[in-house]
């Protein structure tokens, strides 16, 4: 994998670049639609590629491991062939899903034992088998196995969790180096910075991760309930330590304003369920603000959903979309998801244009105000 930085912003730490993988080139900054079980909910791949112009999507190790199972995925020739998506795929390690299971999991030095949310069957994830699972999935970028520290957490717990994550990371690296890819496609491994909300622990973790000199680096354990300003300070601290010449991935973030602010700190890659989850629930993000499409104010508004958008579904009227949501029509959720993903991809591509043009910082300040307004 290669990462080429083509432009940097003089008044912030934003940069425009390209990630070169065996499945294609990803222009950064980039937002990655979340395809948990190998699909982005309610959105066809043709729409993802042609209308939304997504360049990379996510797959979820935990969910794909449970269903359809690795035997099916391997027989298909990997996730790219199983779901028909020919562009790059990133897989998370399953660490966040295991973390969110709460009482269904037990963390040990070896890994995590957990009960399936589907049938209660017992499984174990270790640094080694998580790499093996991602080898079978065949993703272009694999994430190391980590523990996502909850918020709030004591300093002692956070330190012990971070140190265990570091030991797991070494084991992930060893397994990655000792196992070949299965489908003749190079797979990068990204480590994850942890350390909770404690700056000295985040610094330690970022330095540990940076010293491994892997293809890229991720910042995890944010957007788990901590205040937004704390998330920003953690992100900025980590970006100041992580190598300049490697892509930086901020996991699970966030709102349009979050993304713009963190691009300005030097983040290159983002993912979040927010655009599709909110879209399914009648909340639309636009370049002028946020719309709740169930509101009475849209009942007689026959103007397009987004006058400035080139997405075909945005030509429907606000009144019609409100009608769909208020009647529980699945088309409303599909339009909402498609619109929000299109907007998120538009936003990062616009950010890239302004980084290259040299006026990102001033543009970002104005855009943050606009996209945060409730319409």
Descriptive account of the structure:
It is built from 14 helices and 17 strands. The longest helix is centred in the C-terminal third of the chain and has 28 residues, at 330-357. The chain has a single domain, classed as Alpha-Beta Barrel (TIM Barrel). The N and C termini lie far apart (42 Å). The chain is of the alpha/beta class. Strand 14 (248-250), helix 10 and strand 15 (269-271) form a beta-alpha-beta unit. Helices cover 42% and strands 18% of the residues.
Question: Keyphrases for this structure?
Answer:
375 residues; alpha/beta; TIM Barrel; five-stranded parallel β-sheet; four-stranded parallel β-sheet; 17 strands; 42% helix; globular
In a nutshell, what does this entry contain?
By secondary structure, this protein is α/β, with parallel strands linked by helices. The protein has 14 helices and 17 strands. The chain has helices at 45-51, 61-66, 70-76, 79-83, 95-100, 127-137, 155-178, 199-211, 228-241, 256-263, 274-280, 318-326, 330-357, 360-371, and strands spanning 2-8, 15-21, 24-28, 30-32, 57-60, 89-92, 105-107, 112-115, 122-125, 141-143, 188-190, 192-193, 217-219, 248-250, 269-271, 283-286, 289-292.
Topology of helices and strands:
Blueprint lengths: L1 E7 L6 E7 L2 E5 L1 E3 L12 H7 L5 E4 H6 L3 H7 L2 H5 L5 E4 L2 H6 L4 E3 L4 E4 L6 E4 L1 H11 L3 E3 L11 H24 L9 E3 L1 E2 L5 H13 L5 E3 L8 H14 L6 E3 L5 H8 L5 E3 L2 H7 L2 E4 L2 E4 L25 H9 L3 H28 L2 H12 L4
Parallel strand pairs: 4-15, 5-6, 6-10, 10-11, 12-13, 13-14, 14-15
Antiparallel strand pairs: 1-2, 2-3, 7-8, 8-9, 16-17
Helix pairs in contact: 6-7, 7-8, 8-9, 10-13, 10-14, 11-13, 12-13, 13-14
């Amino acid at each position: 994998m290669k990462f080429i930085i083509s432009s940097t912003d003089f008044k912030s730490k934003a940069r425009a670049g390209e990630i070169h993988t065996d499945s294609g080139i990803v222009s950064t900054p980039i937002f990655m639609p979340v395809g948990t079980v190998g699909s982005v909910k309610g959105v066809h791949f043709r729409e993802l590629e042609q209308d939304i112009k997504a360049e990379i999507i996510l797959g979820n190790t935990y969910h794909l491991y449970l269903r359809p199972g690795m035997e099916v995925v391997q027989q298909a020739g990997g996730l790219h062939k199983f779901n028909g998506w020919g562009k790059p795929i990133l897989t998370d390690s399953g660490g966040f899903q295991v973390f969110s299971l709460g009482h269904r999991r037990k963390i040990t030095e070896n890994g995590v034992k957990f009960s399936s949310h589907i049938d209660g069957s017992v499984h174990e994830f270790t640094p080694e088998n998580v790499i093996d699972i991602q080898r079978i999935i065949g993703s272009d970028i694999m994430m190391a196995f980590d523990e996502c520290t909850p918020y709030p957490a004591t300093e002692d717990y956070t330190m012990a969790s971070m140190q265990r994550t570091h030991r797991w990371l070494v084991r992930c690296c060893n397994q990655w180096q000792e196992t070949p890819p299965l489908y003749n496609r190079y797979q990068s491994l990204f480590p994850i910075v942890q350390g909770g909300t404690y700056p000295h622990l985040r610094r330690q973790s970022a330095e540990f991760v940076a010293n491994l000199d892997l293809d890229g680096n991720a910042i995890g354990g944010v957007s788990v309930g901590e205040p937004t300003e704390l998330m920003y300070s953690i992100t900025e601290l980590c970006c100041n330590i992580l190598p300049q010449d490697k892509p930086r991935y901020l996991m699970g973030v966030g709102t349009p304003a979050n993304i713009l602010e963190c691009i300005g700190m030097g983040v290159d890659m983002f993912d979040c369920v927010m655009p599709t989850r909110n879209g399914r629930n009648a909340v639309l993000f636009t370049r002028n603000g946020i719309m709740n499409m169930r509101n009475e104010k849209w009942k007689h508004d026959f103007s397009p959903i987004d006058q400035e958008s080139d997405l075909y579904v945005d030509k429907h009227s606000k009144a019609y979309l409100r009608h769909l949501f208020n009647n529980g029509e699945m088309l409303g959720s599909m339009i909402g998801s498609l619109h929000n993903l299109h907007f998120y991809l538009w936003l990062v591509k616009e950010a890239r244009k302004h980084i290259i043009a040299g006026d990102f910082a001033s543009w970002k300040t104005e855009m943050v105000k606009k996209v945060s307004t409730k319409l």
